[in-house]
């Protein structure tokens, strides 16, 4: 298969259903979906089972018991379970446009990871979007979003369908080319080489930290934030914690300063 899609989720069945709908209508269908589930209830499993027949390959549900925020651990387990040599990371609250996977695969290159972004929606539109709006791709149309209450701003240009415009904006964008857990991709061998996600980290920069170690290990990054499009559904972040955020920043500062590539608390903890 051409890619493994690794998406995280936690007790967000309504949002997950919309995201899986987005992946079920991709123009490129030669991929597997791996749901990295950080301890959700049986309701999430039911959603996954309902979607299994919509994909070329069965959805792989990687689950562990709910023991607080353990996103890095479940991501590492999902990486191990993946069956492709190319991994696309996203979240269970990001609906992909139907060319999302095609553009990741089109732009992949040895020695690089791809850095994508998202277009953030307000809660009102997040709730409003139906599965039919995703299948028809209406929810990615600028006029549809404005008609349903979206305030116009420059970021809406991300939703342009022009290949030439998106390529130009990818080149022009001043945004740093970071490893973003909601929209990024890399070769499996590269993330294994730095031992995956750092399980000492919780919410706040855990994805950026992986990218920083990939840079330390000699990789470069390509910007695709105007090509690989996804809509970010609004939600609360009750798991944010100031002390843990400070701890994460200290880990990142240490790794940058010391050019750290391999961490002990990753995929391989032997």
Q: Could you please describe the fold and organization of this structure?
A:
The protein is an alpha/beta fold and 270 residues long. Helix content is 37%, strand content 17%. The strands form 2 sheets. Strands 3-2-1-4-8-6-9 form a 7-stranded mixed sheet, with helices on both faces. Strands 5-10-7 form a 3-stranded mixed sheet. Helix 2 links the parallel strand 2 and strand 3. Helix 1 packs parallel to helix 2 and helix 10 packs parallel to helix 11. The radius of gyration is 18 Å and the shape is globular. 43% of the residues are buried.
What characteristics describe this protein?
three-stranded mixed sheet, 11 helices, alpha/beta, 270 residues
